[in-house]
Structures are given as C-alpha cells and as structure tokens.
Amino acid sequence: MDTVIVSTLNGVSYGLIVFLIAAGLTVTMGLMRLLNLAHGAFYALGSYITWNYVTQQGLDLWLAVVASAFTVGVLALLLAWVPLSRLTTTLDGQVLLTLGLTYALTNVMIWVWTAEPKAPLIPASLAGQTHFLVPYPSVRLALIVVAAGLAAAIWWFERHTRIGAKVKAGMDDPAVARALGIDVARIGTIVFAVGAWLAGLSGGLGQTIVGVQPSFAIDMLVTALIVVVIGGPGSVTGALVGALLIGLVQAFGQGLFPEYSAFGVYLVMITMLAVKPEGLFGRSATRAG
Amino acid sequence: MPVDTSIPRDDLPAAAPVAVAHRPATGRAARLAVAALLLALFALPFLVPAHLLTLTQRILILALLATSTDLLYGHTGLPSLGQGAYFGVGGYAAGQLMTKAGVDSFWVVFPAAIGAGAIVAAVFGLVALRTRGSSFLLVTFALGELLATAATRLPWLQTPGVRGLTGITMPELFPGQQWTLVSRYYFVVTVAATAYLVLRAFTNSHFGLVLRGIRHGASRMTMMGHHVWLGRYAVFVLAGAVGALAGQLQAFTSGVALPSDLGIATSGLALLIVSIGGPGRLSGNLAGAALVLAAQHYASALVPARWPLLLGAMFCAAAFLRGGGIVGLSQSIGGKVVTRWRATPQP
Questions:
Q1: Nearest chain B CA: its distance from A40 CA (Å)
Q2: Chain B residue with minimal CA distance to A108?
Q3: Which of A188, A277, B160, B251 could serve as A32's disulfide partner, Cβ 3.0–4.6 Å?
Q4: Could you give the C-alpha distances from B6 to A6, B2, B338, in angstroms and in order?
Q5: Which contiguous run of DSSP H or E holds residue B282?
Q6: Got the DSSP string for A212-280?
Q7: Would you place residue A244 in the very low, low, confident or very high pLDDT band (cuts 50, 70, 90)?
Q8: What does the angle CA A90 – CA A228 – CA A203 come to, to the nearest 5 degrees?
Q9: Residue A3: is its pLDDT beyond 70?
Q10: Predicted TM-score (pTM) of this structure
Q11: How far apart are CA B303 and CA A149, in angstroms?
C-alpha cells in the first residue's frame, strides 16, 4: 500500500511539472498555430538560470525560481516580436526556426554551464521528510502544492476571465474573432510569453527533483509533445489530464517494470491515437484534410 | 480579407507555395546533368584526397535520407520529423545481422535491412497517419524518439559496454572479398546512383503525380476516385525503406550504429537538408546534403565545440529561405537570365 501511495505522489508531482510545460505549448499550438520546438529549451534554461542565481549570485531558491522564469519569459517575448511573428504561416518555417533555436540554446547552455549534469538544489528548510500518509520528501510535497496551485490558476484563468474567453475565441475562429475586435496576434504574443514563463518556472521547480543537464531540452520537449497529442492540441484541460496520466504511468511503470518504464508514455500515445486520434479533449476539426 | 477555403482551419500549409512550377526533370538537359554528375562522381577518386571521398560518400548517404523525408514532405505534403527512425533501423538491422548473427553476405544483409525499415514503417504508418499537419509531425518525432530510447535501454541492441552497436564491417559481395577505401566509395556511389535513378522514375511516374495531387488537394483527389489514405500509406512505407537503405550504408561505412541515428538529431538534419535544398526535388536533396555536410566538415574542423551553434544558425537561416531552397533560387535566377537574354533583340 505504501508503495502505491509513494508512486501516486511521484506521478502527480512529475505530472504537474509536465503540465506546466505542456500548457504553454498546447495553447500556442491552438491559438497561434505555432509549433514551438524550443519549448523544452525554455525549460532547461529555466533550470540552469535558477542554478546560476542560487550558486553564483547566492539568491534564495524560491526567489531564484521566480527570477529565472521572468528571464525566460522576457527572452521569449523578444523572440515573439522579432522572428516568430514573421514565421507563423508555414509549418516548416516554424519547425526549422524553433529546432534551430533548441540546438543553438543547448550549445550555449553547454558553453556557459558545461555538459556536466547538475545535482538538484533543494532549500534547506525542505531537505527532510514529512509524514503525509507515508514518509515522503518534503520538497516534493511542496512542489505538488505549488504546481497544483498554478495549474488551478491556469484552469480558472482559461475558463473565467475575459482574456481566457478571447484566447478560446481566437482558437475557434480567428477570422471572426478579429472581426469582433479581438487582437488575436497580440493575444498570441502574450500567450507565447506566458507559456515560456511557465516553462521557465517549471524548469526551476523541476530541477528540485531531477537536477538539470543539456539533454533535458529535447527530453522534456518530447514528453510535453506527447502530452499535447494525448490531450488534444489547444486544450488546457486535455493537457492537465494527459500530463497526470503520463506522470502516473511513468511512476507506476518504474515500480512495476523498471526496465521498460521509459516506453510507457509512448504506449499511452499510440493507444490514444488508435482510439481517438484528435486527443482526449481535441477539436474534431484537427482531423480534417 | 479573402478566405482560402482549400485549407482546413486547423491545418497550416506544410510549406509556402513554391514559386517555380514543378516540371518533371525528364528533359534532355536534366539527363545530361545527371550523366555529367555520375561521370564526375566516378572520376573523383583520381582527383581528390581520401578525406574528401569520405565526405562525398556521406553526402550521398544523407541525400538518400533527405529523399526519404522529401518523399513524404515535398512530394506528398506529410511533414515527417521522424525519418531518422528508419535510418537507424536500417543501420541496426544490418549491424545485428553482421555482428550478432554472423551474416556477412551483401545479398542477404542488404535486402533484410531495407525490409526491416519497410516493416517498421508499415507499423508506424498506421499510427502516424491517424493525424495530419503539425500533429503528424509530433507523432513521427515521438516515434523516432521511442526507437532511440529502445536503442539506449535494451541491452540486446547494444555491443556490450557500448551505448551503440560497433564492429560493423562492409558486407561481402562475394566470399573472401577485401574492401579498399576506393572500392568502398564506388560501392556507395553505385548503390546511391541506382536508388536515385529508381526514385527518379518513381517520382515521375503516375503514382508520383498522384502523390503531388494529394499534397495539393486531398479532398479533390478523393473526389476523383483516388484512395488518398492508401497513397499516403504506400509512400510512408517506401520512405521507410529508402531511409533504411541510407542507414545501412551509413553503418557499413562508419562501422557503428548509434541511438542518435534514430532520433531527432538525424531526423532534424534530414529536414534541414530538404528545406535548404528545396522540397520536392531530388536534385535539391543532393544539393542540400552537399551544402550542409560540407559546412559541417569544415566548421567542425575549425570550431568543433561550437558546431551545434552554427548548425542551429543554419536551421534559423533556412526558416527564412522560403519555398524552393537553393535549387529553386538558382532556377528562378537562371529563368530570369534566360528570359532577359531572349528578350534582348539578337543582332
């Protein structure tokens, strides 16, 4: 029983981190028709900048996480203004540009922080274990609370605010949304920057579990993309359900079939595509063509 | 604002419309160019040092991989970011046969590796073709990463103590054959040229035209009685076979098969080559491979640690090179020159 609880907690904490990455990705895909393959690099950058703020500048960890998220968000804003806005029209242009950015950013990260994996940084107050049903690392519990709060905020924001409604209107029919006076392009830029901010934030939070190394730029991207495919591009609810599913499959897979646990996420994706190719909460229009 | 109803709202066009009209390369000039290129390739060992032969070899191999990507992308409008999967499968299948089963004959290994690529593509195609557009790209990407994960995790896919498969050699065309640097080069040129001629005939065939029709308007092709899904599936399997062909050549000549052959590093490179060269053209695939690999050859000699940064910059630059790539660009410049020359009154 204890192992079930531990696996569930592991799965939920990992799944929530993945959700924070996938949320920005899925909304930019739905709203701006923009496939951003540099999103994983934003995550890795968030981790590295956090590491840098803590070990080099001596900042408090939580402060460093927030500061690095803003650094990544500003970088993304510059990116959205200058080259991305010109390239939202074709898929190949987006893929080349964002994949190129991933390579370039990864190489810069290796240049600045070396290819050596960095160990997780944990605040001293959360270094021990807390008894929540079972003894469990305090930092992971804190992570679940913070990430769940953020996830709830995103979910609420999408459903109950004017901007959330505008985002959904832009996804459903950009031409009509524009005709109604909604600046779809500007909302797209804001969503892109907020998504990058979230990816940077999840980088800072995620490194408390797994540390950071350059290959995470691709690894996290693949995981987030699988979540987007499972949940359905454009759907925040889908991304949340998909991410939790992936997290739990990963955690229980590690407990039950440690050698094959890495394949679990792919299996979920393939099953999903076989049963419902538009994703859990996808719009059926994505099947057209 | 004019609304283009031919494209479903949720699907981006895979590529910008190509400015230069696609004409099947069957004219006399094209045939002459192919013959001249083949002649040059066969004369090369007498002209250049050994390291350039190795580079040329690699250009030909990656041009084949690019063609595998382009059969889906430029010809059929299916943007695949996972052709590395079949490249790797070809290399791993050949490597497993040679190092673990002890089969050395070209006549066994060669068809077996191509078959392995086609079989994997036949399975993956069923999954990937459930989606279109950017979702198709994501799924092919993820399937490639699935195989890369398998190659890193499963011990029976590795040489003990190494993360890849090592000790692969050139296969024997006849028992007791010894390979030299030059004969190996001629082997690659022959295989690549044969594959090129076959694929050229294929893309200019009726089926090749059907694929272009699918790319431009799938619903219209359905209306005209073509089975669109089957066309896409067939070309997906064919592209898998071509990828595996390239992959096994790579394994033969380099002696190793690596997990990175299967994943995004290889698939992304293939897409870059296609875009730089100009999608939908076999000549573009070759030109793109030559440009990218020559850049890699010289840049990684000069600044080995910063090559990925340069590669990233090349990707970003290619993003702005809309439509026809270098071949399209040179054609449109050449076309303008010819038009101007024709317009000038002849004395």
A1: 13
A2: B309
A3: A188
A4: 52, 12, 34
A5: helix B282-302
A6: B-TTHHHHHHHHHHHHHHHH-TT-HHHHHHHHHHHHHHHHHHHHH-GGGGGGHHHHHHHHHHHH-TT-T
A7: very high
A8: 100
A9: yes
A10: 0.88
A11: 46
Nearest by Cα to A194 from A15, A16, A31: A31
Residues with Cβ within 8 Å of residue B204, at least 6 apart in sequence: B24, B25, B26
The model's pLDDT over A173-198, given as tens digits with 9 standing for 90+, comes to: 888 888 998 888 888 888 889 999 99
Is A137 in a helix, a strand, or coil? strand
**Is residue B121 within 8 Å of residue B86, measured between CB atoms?**
yes
Q: Which residue has the tokens 């992936």?
A: A246
Cβ of A273 within 8 Å of Cβ of B127? The answer is yes
> Are B153 and A273 a contacting pair at CB < 8 A?
no
B83 shares contact with chain A (CB less than 8 Å): no
Would you state the structure tokens that stand for residue A97, as one six-digit string? 């540009």
Per the DSSP assignment, residues forming a β-bridge with A129 are: A137
Report pLDDT for B24.
Answer: 52
Q: What is the DSSP string of B287-310?
A: HHHHHHHHHHHHHHHH-GGGHHHH
In this predicted model, what pLDDT tens digit does every residue of A60-102 receive, in sequence order?
999 999 999 999 999 999 888 776 666 656 788 888 889 999 9
Distance CA B213, CA B300 (A): 41
* B270: closest chain A residue by CA: A96
**Predicted confidence (pLDDT) per residue in B258-314, tens digit:** 999 999 999 999 999 998 888 888 888 999 999 999 999 998 888 888 888 999 998
Q: Hey, is A111 helix, strand or coil?
A: helix
Model confidence over B303-342: pLDDT tens digits? 888 888 999 998 888 887 766 677 777 777 777 776 776 6
Q: Is B11 on the interface with A (CB under 8 A)?
A: yes
User: How far from A250 is each of A232, A263, B324, B328, CA to CA, in Å?
Assistant: 20, 9, 43, 46
- For A144, residues 6+ apart whose C-beta sits below 8 A from its C-beta are A9, A12, A13, A16
Alpha-carbon distance of B190 to B259, in angstroms, equals 27
Q: Which two tokens stand for residue A243?
A: 């991410």
What are the C-alpha distances in Å from B192 to residues B27, B59, B63, B304, B315? 22, 10, 9, 29, 26
